[in-house]
Amino acid sequence: MGTIAVRHRILRLLATLVVLALVSCRQGGDQPPAATVDGRPTTGATAPTAIDPTLAPTAAPPDATTDATAPAGTTGAWAAVQERGRLIVGVSADYPPFAFYNDAFELDGYDIALARLLGERLGVEVEFKDMAFDGLGGALQVGQIDAAIAAISITNGRREQMDFSDLYFVSDGAALARADSGIAIAGIEDLAPYRVAAQAGTVYQSWLEESAVGAGIMPADNLLIYTDNAQAIEDLRAGFIDVVIADSLPLEVAAQDGTLAVVGRGLNRQRFAVAIARGSNLLSPINEALFELQTEGELARLAERYLNLDVTELQPLPPAEATPEPLEDTARFTSDCIDAMTLVAHLSLDDDGMRSPPPVSPGTPFQKSWRVQNSGTCTWNSGYLLTPVGGNVPQAGMGGTATAIQGLVLPGETHDITVDLVSPLLPGVYQGFWSMRAPNGLLFGDRLWVGITVPAQPTPTPPPTAAPSADIRFSADRTAIRAGECVRFSWDVTNAESVHFNAQGQPWEQHRVAPSGEQAECPPVTMFYDLRVVMPGGTVDVRSIRIDVTAAPDTPFISSFTVTPNQQIVAGRCVDVRWRVSGEVTNIRVTRNDTTLWNGAPLTGTSRDCPDVGEVTYAIEVIGPGGTSRSLENLTVVAATPVPGQPTPTASPGQLPVINSLTIFPDRIFVGNCLTVSWTVSGNVNRAQLWRNDVLVLDFAVFSGTVTDCLSVEGTYAYRIEAMNAQGQAVSQQALATVVR
Q1: Where are the domains of the chain?
Q2: How far apart are CA 395 and CA 376, in angstroms?
Q3: What is the CATH superfamily name and number for domain 657-740?
Q4: Homologous superfamily of 171-268
Q5: Calpha distance 537→213 (Å, rounded)
Q6: What pLDDT score was predicted for residue 21?
Q7: Which of 47, 51, 104, 606 has the smallest C-beta neighbourhood within 10 Å, fewest atoms?
């Protein structure tokens, strides 16, 4: 062991002995009031206008105490940690980049890495408990955890309920705009009319999504998410966007040339510290470990790795002062009892910590059950709801709804609770999260989860292809591709009345083409493309080509790419091009007929374009370390033929989404066989859902998609695609299928 390490151990031991001696002289006081860790944006944690007194939490009777609600004395907390050889840390893994689950379903992030470093310096292992953010204070009070590391800002109200370490992270957000723009940002509400950029995975993305878009202050189209701030600043100079929100220091550097200016300061102020129980003697060893990590540059390395901040962009750590807070927050939801919950066991579909999620067939109703313990001091009743709070992908909610506690559950008692779910139709691994919600609206306790694997279904066999005809030639340059690649179709038809080319699921009437031509398509999944030839006399000949698409998990994923209006417009009108991309991305390029409209585009964005008369192809190309993904949208611009005295039609600002098509192929199958459901939606779409017999089978569906559904029970099945805008307004369309024996 090195001399420095020995010295650190000796100093730590001496400091601990001094603290123990001082604390032993402190007289015990009354129990502090129940703690709630509020202030950071959380899912659904909103105050009700009134609380039904019959559903309010009740304090436990004097004799209702258990080990779970009787924490070790705070003066012996450090000794207890050393004796067990393990520091139990509460985290809230829904707040990237500080805490989240990575693609391997493992905890990751700045706070997770910091906790592990603290454990190394303290000489103990670290056990994580992923919990609802608002319940971390209660978990500290009842001794469920030793410390909470969850991007917790120090406030005066929290100081009355828990102790805090020295600060480990400090930042102040700022707004950057063009110097001649006249923009001034004093608060988040001032961002409403502007196109605002933030970097993916930063606290500013989360803040804007939850506090601006989620609160209805700013439309979703106005938030543009970039892979890095440098590209956002270049697009600000070019006029693609109006404002960049980021840490103040790099924005100050960008403004030095005088063309840009910092137009807002003190936005989304961050002052993070480790929270521990009031009077806990863990404070001294944690502060000493934090001091070592800071002086050795470990905190700076964490900021560089997880927050994309180099050492020149970091603000110095000041003393741990309180952050100003609204007056109403100081007494928010105080109670005579403490809410806390501990997961005891998975009673069904145990996934072994997401190491082996059990298989569930697509679109299958199932149940998930857990055993939990009331480890707080409040008695649970039907006002307590187990509530879905997200997952690894949007579809991981699996149609679950809030489920009420049945009967009364006293402190210390265990309770079994079951939720009803439906597996998504798309193949993949899904992990959905659930938290307990108290009658006052706050979430608390261990975060529960359900993990399943949905296997891929076979693709339905296409109908027999018509015999070759000398009058119809239809081909593709290849029929097997990787996801993100494109196929070029060619056709040549003679002696036909009309010709239509479309993907199955699209309305063929809207896809009339010239008798001879070619067109590129980039199918996201295995699907069929049809050439429909209407002969003189009305006979129809349909030729189909199946394109097999192999998943490419490492390539970027294009969640949506739409053009509104689509199909056809009159010259002089404009279209809105919208896209949403995820995964590892190095560059995004949006084009019109191979002319670049936006190079280095954001991960989510919109662009307005006014094309000339002719055939127009809009394309998005997304490049990442794992490959390239592409998507296309075709549009026909026809010359305007104005009627005397009538103005040329202009684009309607219509707010409702548009459902272009919903088809089922085939629409009649035998029991045990499969069918394909295809749909296309466009316009002002924020969310799409696919329902089967009024059961949600696919949430957050892609805007143009295809799924396979294999049915084992005879009967009539009603499929419904529903598209909603950001204001919650919805349109829907239904199609029927029949299953026979």
Answers
A1: 3-170+270-331, 171-268, 341-454, 472-550, 557-638, 657-740
A2: 32
A3: Immunoglobulins (2.60.40.10)
A4: Periplasmic binding protein-like II (3.40.190.10)
A5: 55
A6: 41
A7: 104
- Contact partners, residue 25, CB within 8 Å, separation at least 6: none
Q: Distance between CA atoms of 536 and 593, rounded to whole angstroms? A: 34
Task: Indicate the residue type of 500.
Answer: H
- Positive or negative: CA dihedral 247, 250, 252, 258: negative
- For 572-601, write each residue's pLDDT tens digit: 888 889 898 988 888 999 999 989 999 999
Q: Tell me if 592 sits within 8 A of 633, measured CB to CB.
A: no
Q: Which of 359, 388, 384 is nearest to 374 (CA)?
A: 384
Cα dist from 42 to 56, 340, 443, whole Å: 21, 17, 9
Report the relative pairing of strands 86-91 and 147-148 from DSSP bridges: parallel
HSE, side-chain direction, 13 A CA sphere, residue 48? 13
Q: Is 503 exposed, middle or buried (0-12, 13-18, 19+ CB in 10 A)?
A: buried
Whether the Cβ atoms of residue 424 and residue 430 lie closer than 8 Å to each other: yes
Q: Most distant CA pair in the chain: distance in Å?
A: 103
Task: Map residue 414 onto helix, strand or coil.
Answer: strand
Residue showing tokens 């490419």: 552
Mean pLDDT throughout 122-137?
95
* Contact between 94 and 43 (Cβ < 8 Å): yes
Indicate the residue type of 467: A
Cα separation, 712 vs 161, whole angstroms: 57
| 288 Cβ contact list (under 8 Å, min separation 6) | 11, 12, 15, 121
Q: Which CATH number among 2.60.40.10, 3.40.50.170, 3.40.720.10, 2.170.130.30 corresponds to the domain 557-638?
A: 2.60.40.10
> Strands across the sheet with 575-582, in order?
125-130, 86-91, 147-148, 260-276, 163-178, 243-247, 196-199, 223-226, 604-609, 575-582, 557-564
Residues 6+ apart with CB under 8 A from 645: none
If phi > 0 it is left, if psi is from -120 to 50 it is alpha, else beta; for residue 304 that is alpha
Tell me if 341-454 shares its fold with 472-550.
yes
Is the CATH code 3.40.190.10 the one for domain 3-170+270-331? yes
- Within a 10 A sphere around the Cβ of 165, how many other Cβ atoms? 24
pLDDT digits (tens, 9 = 90+) for 171-221: 788 999 999 999 999 999 999 999 999 988 777 888 899 899 988 899 888
From the list 440, 336, 591, the residue with the least C-alpha distance to 45 is 440
Following CA atoms 624, 628, 629, 631 in sequence, which dihedral angle do they give, to the nearest 10 degrees?
120
Tokens 């999620």 label which residue? 357
Q: What is the DSSP letter of 697?
A: E
Reported confidence tier of residue 32, pLDDT bands at 50, 70, 90: very low
CA nearest neighbour of 199 among 176, 230, 175, 159:
230
Classified as helix, coil or strand, 717 is strand
| Residues 6 or more apart in contact with residue 485 via CB below 8 angstroms | 522, 628, 630
Contacts of 166 (CB under 8 A, 6+ apart): 273, 287, 290, 291, 317, 319, 320
DSSP string, 340-401: -EEEEEE-SS--TTTTSPPB--TT-EEEEEEEEEE-SSEEB-TT-EEEEEEESSGGGGTT--
Structure token pair of residue 630:
């592409």
For residue 57, pLDDT over 60 is answered with no
- From residue 325, how far is each of 36, 156, 396 by CA, in Å? 14, 8, 35
Contact status, residue 680 vs residue 704, Cβ threshold 8 Å: yes
Q: Would you say domain 341-454 falls under CATH 2.60.40.10?
A: yes
